Amino acid sequence: MNNKIDVNEHLTFHTETSEIFLNKQRIILMGADSLGTLRRDLISALGTERAKGFLLRYGWNCGVENAENMMTALPFETELDWITIGPKIHAMTGHVNVEATEINFDPKTGDYFAEGYWYHSYEAEQHIKHFGFHHEPVCYTLIGQAGGYVSKHLGRKVIFKEIECIGKGDARCHWIGKPLEDWGKEIQSETHFYVEEDLELELNDAYKRIENQKEMLQRVLKINEQISNVLLKKKDLHSIISILGQHFQTSVIVEDQDFQLLASFGKYKNHDIKRFIDNPFGLQKIPINNLNKHKRTSHLSLPEQFGWAHNRLTAPIMVNNQPLGYLSLIRENVEFDEIEYIALERTATICAIQMLNEKTALETEQRIKGEFLDELIRGNPNVEDLTHRMKFIGHDLNQPHYLFLFDLRHRHEIYDELEETELLEIKKQMAESIYSQIKSFGQSCLVSSKLDQIISLVPSDTIEKVNLSVKEFGNLLVKHLGNSYQQMSIILGISSQCKHIKLYKRGYEEARKAIEIAQFKQEKIDVVAFDELGLIARLCNDKNLAELKSFALDILEPLVIYDQKSSSELLKTLFYYFENQGNVLKTARNMMLSAGSIKYRIKRIEEITSLNLLLSKDFFDAQVALQILIFLGLVIIK
């Protein structure tokens, strides 16, 4: 049997009467968007359940008519031929592309089973366009049409059912068709959709549906009123989401734009949602894309491999068409219903206002604190006035502080004006991140962003509370920033402890010098504390580093070259010789060598460098030269 159907052979256009016929059946051309609008209005007027029955029965009648019409036009004789060609006829209508993976029919027993996939379903596309993803399959007309066509040919009721659907976030529409009695209990909840109902019952059902929608609206309005009151009372995000969680007896969480937890209500387990979002797989690709790209509420299902198996209904918290964060209802098993979708999206709007208020307040506070910080590091501040103003906003400058200076560089040297604007925004976000990170340890701080630097005054108490050294605390901050802003190169310089308001200018210079030294060294250094720098480092600056390097190489470069070529340890011997103030016996013990070996090496050093280490000038010059080379990373003593 030839399975190919040429549509042109069956279509007739009567230009005089403006009629179009498919065989002997008159048809009309109608856009998919028009059918989508009709679908939207039906669902809005009748509700999803009633509209589903209407569309399914409409599709069923279309399938029956297609079967009757094609019987008079195609030269097929057996039911098997008609059943096999069915998907081709279905696809011919333009509603969907059909792939039948299995069709089994026994003419003797009447047994029937079919399975396959639909692609480019106009019905799924239109439903997503008007309503977003649904919690169940939505191709009502298509399953009705397939069922009506097959039932007409077999003379028995055959039901088609979608087990996957693009309209609910799946990768494709997956269908199965078999006789009603073969479905058993699995199809019982669907059979009433195929039964025509009288007007009285329709009106009664419509009245019940209106009452249910009225009750649903009242519940949503009540939740909205309570949450709005919380917003007006200037309470925090936790207070807002607690109301939502209590109403629906479920967990609720708020996350920032990087899916870091901001607030939670109810049960919560640590899990790697960011990795799940960044690496979508299988059936989750569509809802994740719907959330990320289209900024729509999406139903996500996380498997155990990400740390917590659960379902989440997630709505983006939008401000100026950009997500500030995400609001989610969390359940481990139960699905979400329509009222929860509506309430979640309304609450997300309230959260957007709350987060925008917090962001504005934080920016204002940071701007004020930044101005105060600029006064401090400029020198000669009005101590009494500045101390009073800082106490007014809750910051005591009489406590000991460390000045943290973050030097920021974009990893790409060349970027256009747009990227520069984005770079300024990134630096602003980094300043906010530093502030939030330090505040999470229990105490506020001053943060100011200017040019390629971020300056922060960190209370000593904050560092002591976490039982870290000041450098370990700095490494913690740099690591946090590096993970979130990988496009930026970050060096942190840390001052010595500033115990008085007049010392902050000195602290700024110390932190700046620490960064200069880190940039000059050959090895990569992320955090430099001024207190860890030796005398040479403190004497160095960007104007004399080249001169000091030249001085050191003039004295010890021959020895450096000799060690590199011969893989000897003369520089190491010289280092320990200086560490032991020229004591040969102590040097020998340090290097676990004999005194004779040390004497031989010292003699060799003097021969190579033309130095006389018995002379105080040569001894001192060589010692300083070695310290400079070690400081600059040109010599490494292991």
Itemize the secondary structure elements and their pairings.
Blueprint: H1 7-10, E1 11-14, E2 19-22, E3 25-27, H2 32-46, H3 48-71, H4 79-92, E4 97-105, E5 112-119, H5 122-131, H6 140-154, E6 158-164, E7 173-179, H7 180-183, H8 199-232, H9 237-248, E8 251-256, E9 261-265, H10 273-278, H11 285-292, E10 298-302, E11 310-319, E12 322-331, H12 338-378, H13 383-392, E13 401-410, H14 417-439, E14 446-450, E15 453-459, H15 460-465, H16 470-484, E16 488-494, H17 504-520, E17 527-529, H18 535-539, H19 545-566, H20 570-579, H21 584-591, H22 595-609, H23 616-631
Parallel strand pairs: 16-17
Antiparallel strand pairs: 1-2, 2-3, 4-5, 5-7, 6-7, 8-9, 8-12, 10-11, 11-12, 13-15, 13-16, 14-15
Can you describe what's shown?
There is one protein chain. The protein is of the alpha+beta class. The chain has 4 domains: 7-196, Trafficking protein particle complex subunit 3 (Muramoyl-pentapeptide Carboxypeptidase, domain 2, 2-Layer Sandwich); 202-360, 2-Layer Sandwich (Beta-Lactamase), CATH 3.30.450.40; 379-532, 2-Layer Sandwich (Alpha-Beta Plaits), CATH 3.30.70.270; 545-631, Arc Repressor Mutant, subunit A (Orthogonal Bundle), CATH 1.10.10. It is 52% helix and 17% strand. It contains 23 helices and 17 strands. A 5-stranded antiparallel β-sheet has the order 9-8-12-11-10, sandwiched between helices. A 5-stranded mixed β-sheet has the order 14-15-13-16-17. Strands 4-5-7-6 form a 4-stranded antiparallel β-sheet. It starts with 6 loop residues before the first helix and ends in a 7-residue tail after the last helix.
